[in-house]
Amino acid sequence: MSPLLQDLRYALRAFTKNPTFSAVAVATLALGIGANAAIFALVDRVLIRTLPVVNPGELVLLRSPGPKQGRTSSDGDDAFCFAYPTYRELAGKSKVFAGLFGEVPFSASIAARGETESASGELVTGNYFGVLGVPPAAGRVLTPADDQTKGAHPVAVLSHGYWQRRFGGDPSVLGKPVTVNGQSFTIVGVAARAFEGIQPGRRADLFVPMMMKPQITPFSDGLDDPKDYWLQIVGRLKPGVSRSAAEHELVATYRPILEELLPRMTGWNDVRKKEFLNKKIELLSGARGRRNLQRGFGTPLASLMGMVGLVLLIACSNLAGLLAARGAARQREYGIRLAIGASRAQLLRQSIVECLVFSLVGGALGLLLAAWLLNGLLSAFPAEADLRQIAAQIDPRVLGFGAGLSLVAGILFGVGPAYRAARLDPARTLRGQGRGSTTPGREALRLRNGLVIAQVALTLVLLVAAGLFTQSLRNLSRVELGVKVDHVIGFSIAPKLNGYTSERTAALARQLTDDLKSLPGARSVTAAQLGTLAGNDMGSSVVLEGADKTADAPHSRMNYIGPDYFVTLGIPLLEGRAIAWSDDANAPKVCVVNETFAKKVLPGKRAIGQRISVGGGLDAKPDTEIVGVVRDSKGSQVSEDPNPFAYLPYLQNPRLGDLNFYVRAEGDPAQLASALRAAVKRLDPQLPVDDLKTLATQLKESLLTERLIMMLSVAFGGLAALLAAIGIYGVLAFAVAQRRQEIGVRMALGANPAAVRRLILGEVVRFVLVGAVIGLPVSYAVARVVESILFGVHASDVPVFAFGLVLMAAVALFAGYLPAHRAARIDPLDALRND
Q1: Using CA atoms, how far apart are residues 80 and 58, in angstroms rounded to an integer?
Q2: In this structure, are 241 and 330 located in the same domain?
């Protein structure tokens, strides 16, 4: 039998011979590795993994910060948005790109096989798949020939996932028609299995040629308007061309385009014109795609990864302490083995093999725990949430990460105790010196003392972080919303995706409002273009009557709403009147503004009767009269600051196409859910109903990320405190055993039990004080890092730090009390007799 196999068999026997020790060691490691693997699965998908395309490192995202004039439509940073004519110019003139493509997401209503459902699509230029290097899984992908003439290429490519979900992977769908937003398209292919678009978290179900945009988004063509910014541009650099060199070359290409556009930018002074002409194109890495999801989840995920890393360090330090104590307890065994001929290398190898057995078993259990934890984390988010769309799972990368952690933990924290065991002096060990004077025991105790201090410091960091996130969530939960979320249920429809004109949509909205009002239990009904607390936003510059149109106009957020909006959502009307059914397309334009609008945009003036225009520029006509003022309320998210807000009638919106309905009920609003679906189906069986949920549920979902971060940080802090308590208990119990003779002598000389307890608990105080000296500055540094994602909490929040320190001290004293109590009960005669 080979020596390694012998060591393995011996390690397995030792593993089963001491079940309590083995269970504690394995459980400690499993908790640390499981938490790390689960969070890593999310971090990998969101922050690390590159797109499944050819040479993703060559991809770049184009960004052009600076002034622009006209219409902008973005999903975050509008500097990434370009006009389509600008894209055509860049694609035709730039020499640094092997290819340059444009894309924009769109909401789709897809009718096939007698059913209509909502989906996500991407309008893409014809070279999209070619530049990315994405092959078809079936049929073909789009080519430049499919993107030549407006409206002339009704073809579509399905994503592999959507092909499986909707059509069951049926190859016969190729060449068959499918209705997208009321237009017939022919399915020509299915994209490669792993590819679902260029933005993680925004899963594309189908891809349509860019020249079909007038048919897909009839209210917003934008293909010919150089002042309509909506297109995201991605390029592939030529081999050997760096990003900095490409940016330098693009200056010569971009400047003439800006000079040609400058005469169209009306109303600007010379400074603004100069800023426009000096705009440059920045190239950001596109290897990981467009990073919108990272903006919302990047910092929280990185923070959680740091926390679970600290938990793993605490777990490993506990494991090292257990192994050190075990090694000290087995020093006589090691001495005998060395005395009868075992080499130090054999002893070292065997000890390392034993550590690896613990690590591998703990790692395997940790990965099972990670799968359970990851599933629980993702299931907490609604099905349509971005984080659910990335489909994080325990895949080979996560398995490799977990296996690597296990091996590193075993080797890093097992080699030290193994090395100390291998360098024992067998003669000195076998002489059986007093327990209190055994050098290996003292070394093990010093090591464990250091490890416990490190655990205290790291646990303090986690407790402070948990306190900060908890306080942040408490502040968010106490925010005055300005909206009464109780007894309200809502849903969304998108008639424009089924080919409705704005006139048909307005007629549908009025009829549906009347039908919903007649439902038993419904008190009031309203609708709006944007949902409340749904994370979406819309805004525009505002020009006041008589104001200088060449000056920078104030900006206001806005929403198109229906009658009874303020009554249904519980927003108090302070002055004037609300929006009415009479405010239709044939009536004079009106709006209602909030308090902040009245104070900031119209300081010193009475808002009622003032006339404004939505949209700036020299051609702006202040033809919209303010007829009411309402109290401030949260529109997009709970954490937003008060902003000027204008409410306009959706009946006066020439691009009306999406509506969010809200019904205030007499009792439980959830009981109206089936009746709401039935009411929509009676009017149009092909119109999907989305996001059907109560407003209270919407509020909970809007805070879901913050709530999960708080819960996880508290869980990690609690786990760290538990591990630290185990470590403190272990080191003090070991210290009491090592100092049994000393304690017996003290008590024989007159020390009372209280003095002995104080002696042992003094060690606890030392652990806490030294750990605090190390942990508090680190906690402050961590707090500075996460401060940007906290609400109403600063990095120097003294009460949070004090609470963390007090809690750590309480945990340490609790863990140290039992060893101190045992030490106080030592019989001095028995201790001296045994030694």
Answers
A1: 18
A2: no
- Rounded Cα–Cα distance for residues 566 and 630 (Å): 8
Instruction: At 509, list the tokens.
Output: 């909205």
396 belongs to a structural domain: yes
- Measured in degrees and rounded to the nearest 5, phi and psi for residue 661 equal -95, 145
The residue count for the chain:
835
Helix 439-477 vs helix 798-824: angle between axes, to the nearest 10 degrees?
Answer: 140
Residue 421, SS3 per DSSP: helix
Query: Would residue 161 count as lying in a domain?
Result: yes
Q: What is the pLDDT of residue 400?
A: 86
pLDDT at 437: 43
Is beta strand 590-594 parallel, antiparallel or unpaired with respect to 624-630? Answer: parallel
As for how many domains the chain has, the answer is 3
The helices-and-strands tally (H runs, E runs) of the chain is 25, 24
CB atoms within 10 A of CB 382: 14
Whole-number Å distance between alpha carbons of 791 and 706? 10
Residues of the chain with pLDDT under 50: 433-438
| Helix 292-329 and helix 704-738, axial crossing angle in degrees, nearest 10 | 10
Cβ neighbours for 520, distance < 8 A, ≥ 6 positions apart: none
Other C-beta atoms lying within 10 Å of the C-beta of residue 419 = 15
In a shared domain, residues 11 and 142 = no
pLDDT at 337 (0 to 100): 63
Q: Which residue reads 């990460």 in tokens?
A: 401
Same domain, yes or no: 419 and 513: no
The answer to whether the CB of 656 falls within 8 A of the CB of 504 is no
Check: CB of residue 133 under 8 Å from CB of residue 53. Answer: yes
Strand 206-209 and strand 115-124: pairing?
A: parallel
User: Per residue, what are the HEC states of 553-589?
Assistant: CCEEEEEEECCCHHHHHCCCEEEECCCCCCCCCCCCC
The closest alpha carbon to 233, from 107, 140, 131, belongs to: 131
> Phi/psi at 4 (nearest 5 deg)?
-65, -40
Tell me which residue of 786, 808, 801, 794 sits closest to 712, measured CA to CA. 786
Assess contact for 670 and 456: CB atoms under 8 A.
Answer: no
Tell me whether residue 31 is in a domain: yes
Tokens coding 750: 């007159």
Do both 410 and 505 map to the same domain?
A: no
Rounded distance, CA 596 to CA 644, Å? 5
Alpha-carbon 121 to chain mean position: 22
Domain final position from 228, 260, 287: 287
Q: Which of 251, 34, 211 is nearest to 128 (CA)?
A: 211
Shared domain check, 156 and 83: yes
Residue 697, in any domain of the structure: no
Indicate if 409 and 507 belong to the same structural domain.
Answer: no
Question: Among candidates 704, 712, 710, which has minimal Cα distance to 39?
Answer: 712
Residues 116 and 37 in one domain: no
* Residue type for position 115: E
CA distance 217 to 182: 11
Is there a single domain that holds both residue 550 and residue 670? Answer: yes
Residue with tokens 């984080």: 387
CA distance between the termini of the chain: 42
Q: Are 40 and 49 in contact (CB under 8 A)?
A: no
Task: Residue 729: name the closest of 643, 815, 825, 791 by CA.
Answer: 815
Q: Which of 654, 687, 720 is the last residue of a domain?
A: 687
Three-class secondary structure of residue 655 per DSSP: coil
Containing structural domain, residue 356: 1-49+292-432
Q: What is the value of pTM for the model shown? A: 0.78
Burial (CB count <10 Å: 0-12, 13-18, 19+), residue 24: middle
Q: How far apart are CA 456 and CA 469, in angstroms?
A: 20
Task: Assign 330 to helix, strand or coil.
Answer: coil
Separation CA 394–CA 368 (nearest Å): 9
638: exposed, middle or buried (Cβ count in 10 Å: 0-12, 13-18, 19+): middle
Q: Could you give the CA distance from residue 683 to residue 149 in angstroms, rounded to a whole number?
A: 36
For residue 107, the cross-strand partners are 120
